[in-house]
Design brief:
Number of helices: 6
Order of helices and strands: HHHEHHEEH
Mean pLDDT: 94
CATH architecture: Orthogonal Bundle
Strand content: 5-15%
CATH class: Mainly Alpha
Helix content: 55-70%
Largest sheet: 3 strands, antiparallel
């Protein structure tokens, strides 16, 4: 007699009608990959903290470094990743470069994440 595995069905039965629906809605592999890469960017607490600063104001690297008690070099490295992921944008004003959120989707993603972790 086969050993029962916790969380598995007692019998093997494929529900083709459900699989058809799932297969039609499943994203292409490239889209799934891109989405996973985007969520990896949110996997760093420094980048999350940078985004929280940018929720409040458009700031330069100097301001971010001071607000987060980090070096400008460390902040620049994280901003490069955020910019490559299209989560932040920059603009030059004189000798300064100011950073801001790329769009409101960034705030929505963070807000949804916060809601999720605060659920009981």
């Amino acid at each position: 007699m086969a050993e029962k595995i916790e969380g598995c069905c007692d019998t093997f039965e494929v529900h083709e009608n459900l699989l058809k629906i799932v297969r039609e809605k499943m994203p292409k592999e490239t889209e799934a990959y891109d989405l996973a890469e985007l969520f990896k960017v949110f996997g760093d607490s420094t980048r999350i903290r940078i985004l929280f600063v940018l929720f409040e104001a458009e700031v330069c690297v100097c301001d971010l470094a001071e607000a987060l008690c980090m070096t400008q070099s460390a902040i620049s490295h994280q901003l490069r990743i955020l910019k490559q992921s299209k989560l932040v944008k920059s603009r030059r004003e004189g000798k300064s470069v100011f950073y801001s959120l790329a769009d409101n989707h960034v705030r929505t993603i963070i807000d949804q994440g916060r809601e999720h972790i605060e659920e009981d």
